[in-house]
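The freezer alarm interrupted the setup, so I double-checked each line after restarting. Inputs confirmed:
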Amino acid sequence: MPETITPALRVEGLSHDWGAKSALANVGFSVPAGRFCALLGPNGAGKSTLMAVLTGLIRPRPGVVTVNGHDLGRAPRKALAQIGVVFQQPTYDLDRSVGANLRYFAALHGLSGRTAADRITECLARLGMAERIAEKVGALNGGHRRRMEIARALIHRPRLLLLDEPTVGLDAPARAAITAHVHDLTRDGISVLWATHLVDELRETDDLVLLHRGRVAATGAVSDVTAGQPLAEWFLAQTGAPA
Amino acid sequence: MNALLAAKAIIGRELARFFTQRERFLAALVRPLVWLFVFAAGFRAALGLSIIPPYQTYITYETYIVPGLCGMILLFSGMQSSLSLVNDRESGAMRLLLTAPRPRWFLLGAKLVAGASVGLLQVAAFLVIAYFYGLKFSAGGYLAALPAFVMAGVMLGALGLFLSARIRQLENFAGVMNFVIFPMFFLSTALYPLWKMQESSLLLANLCRANPFTHAVELIRFALYGQLNLPALGWTVLSAIVFFGLALHGYEPARTRSGRRPD
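Predicted 3D structure, all chains:
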């Protein structure tokens, strides 16, 4: 069972700076297969930079990122094929339908025709969005647009789902629904790395990586690292930032 | 096979966007038509043209500027697709594209072909109107010009791609108008032949000679008369390679600052 041995995501010795400003310093952690791991950190902790590195948009020097054993630096295409991404900023064409947006993405990943159509239907259904396939994305509310993006990230059946503050700008019910949907995905063996600064999106059973000022300040299961302290209080104590 | 599918999707998306933006199509068409119908009429009186290759006889000024206006359409189209790339960058669509498991050169190359296809459609529409205005070329001329349009479109698209790697915000795009489009267009053989330019300034004529847009226009001009202008082809291809190389360099992951936090 290689999945149980090889972590879905392994990050080692990762550093990156924007000119004189250090964004990530010797970051290392791993996400086991089928786990929901929260990348928790206050604003400016380096979460978005880390996400850009993990999606291959920027190349770290030094550092190693492997996705299901595939080195992102050496075999970027193999690694990227295993990743589904939901970016913090919206990445869709507002004037095209949900179906058209998803077909475009499917084609970028080499899927077409019946296969693409089946996967699109399946992924939309998974997120409770099946009936919206013909609607223009511009006509959807924020929560549904996000769900569409999550469905899209699943079309190529990735083993790892990366989400960069996916609930930004959503109201409380939409936030809760999306958090629950993504937690459910781990039941099918998908690993999730969920960047956030909102502690109420985490469950006791989740893993967490606390990123603070570009460094990993704590890592482990939520219940272990907080040692019984309420997560919000613990987070505040660790970072000095209100959760 | 999978790669072709991805390329088809990228080109299809660009064409679909083009067809939904009717104003863009109209603007692209009106610009050269104004030059043709208004400026050319005025310039005709002011500018005497002698017989220069590929022309075998005296030609009207309108006839002279048709290839230049085709080039102008491709120039604007190339810059327009660069504008849409900057927009894609800002909207995040570029991230989606660049995280697809395909080589970066391939993804950007497909974007380039997509932009050139849009430009080609605009040129075709312009030539149809020019035809009914009485500016006709032979069937062979149109056919021979097709690869010339593609090559010119790819070269100018590559320039746009390179610029889009450098431009961080849409607001900066006005600078492209002033510092790229206008100098490229006016310092070329699109509106006046080189010898005419040389009469007034050798320096300006030399700048025209160095301008890749001049070579693209001359490639089109000769092709429309069924002739191959080999040096023009060479310079256009070379420029395309250089611009595309610079664009790839600009989009190289280590240099891309896409990781900046969007405000």
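Quick read of the result. The first helix of chain A runs from residue 2 to 5.
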